[in-house]
Amino acid sequence: MKLIGSLTSPYVRKTRVVLAEKKIDYDFELDSPWTPDNQVSNINPLGKIPVLVLDDNTVLFDSRVIVEYLDNVAPNNKLMPAPNRERSEVKRWEALADGVCDAAALVFLERKRPAALQSAEWIARQENKILLSLDFMSNELAESVWCMGTHFSLADVTVGCALGYLIFRFPEIDWQEKHPNLARLYEKLMRRPAFLDTIPQA
Ligand code: GSF
C-alpha cells in the first residue's frame, strides 16, 4: 500500500504512527496540496492529504477512515477497542485532537495572508478552540497513564500528533507549562519509535 502525504501534516503523522505501531509495511510518497503541480486532487477530490492507496488501487481518505482501516487490517497491537462505548470514546478523542489540528491549520493559513487581509477575530476564534480543547484534554486525562486509562490507544496517537503540531507551528502556546499532565503524556509518546521517527519537519 502507498501513503501520500507530507512531513509536516499532523493528520499524515497520525497515519504514519498507526502504520508503525501496527508494523504495517508501506511506501511513503511525498506530495502536498500546497506545492505547485501536486497530484493530490487527481487522487482525492477533496485535495487533502493523507491519502492511502491500497494494493488493489482503492483510495482511502480521510485520516480517520485510514486509521480505522489500518487498525482492522492487522490483528496485532489493536488501537481501537471493540466495545461500542469505549470505541466511541476513542473516536471522540480523535475528533477533539483533529479539531485542534483543524483550528491550528486555519490560524496558520490565515497568518499567511497579507497582513491587511488577516482577520484578528477569526484567529482569536480558532485560538480559543485550541485553548478550550487543551483544557478539556487535560481534565479528561487527569493523572491516567494513557488517554483511555491503562491502555495505549488511538486516542494517545491523535492527541500526541495534535500536541506535536502545536509545538511545531505554535510554540508560543505554552501548553506544557499550563498542562503538565499533557506534557508528561507527550514525553512518554516521544519515547516510542513511531513518534520519534515522525517528528514534523519543515
Ligand atoms: C484533514 C486533512 C487536512 O486538512 C484528515 O485527513 O483527517 N480531515 C482530514 N490536511 C491538510 C494538510 S495539513 O494541513 O495537515 C490538507 O491537505 N489541506 C489542503 C486543503 O486544501 O485544505
In a few lines, what is going on in this structure?
The chain is α+β, with helices and mostly antiparallel strands. It has helices at 10-21, 40-43, 63-73, 84-110, 120-141, 154-169, 175-178, 180-189, 193-196, and strands at 2-5, 27-30, 51-53, 59-60. The mean pLDDT is 97.
Q: Which stretches are poorly predicted, pLDDT < 50 over at least 5 residues?
A: none
Helix/strand structural class: alpha+beta
Q: Work out the strand percent.
A: 5-15%
Indicate the mean pLDDT. Answer: 97
Helix content: 40-55%
Number of DSSP helical runs: 9
User: What letter string, H or E per element, gives the SSE order?
Assistant: EHEHEEHHHHHHH
Main sheet: which strands, in order across? 2-1-3-4
Based on CA inertia axes, which overall geometry fits?
Answer: globular
- What is the total tally of β strands? 4
Kindly provide the name of the CATH class of the largest domain. Answer: Mainly Alpha
Calculate the terminal CA-CA distance, rounded to whole Å: 25 Å
Largest sheet: 4 strands, mixed
Domain count:
2
Oligomeric state of the chains? Answer: single chain
Enumerate the distinct ligands.
L-gamma-glutamyl-3-sulfino-L-alanylglycine
Rg, Cα atoms, Å: 17 Å
CATH topology of the largest domain: Glutathione S-transferase Yfyf (Class Pi), Chain A, domain 2
CATH architecture of the largest domain: Up-down Bundle
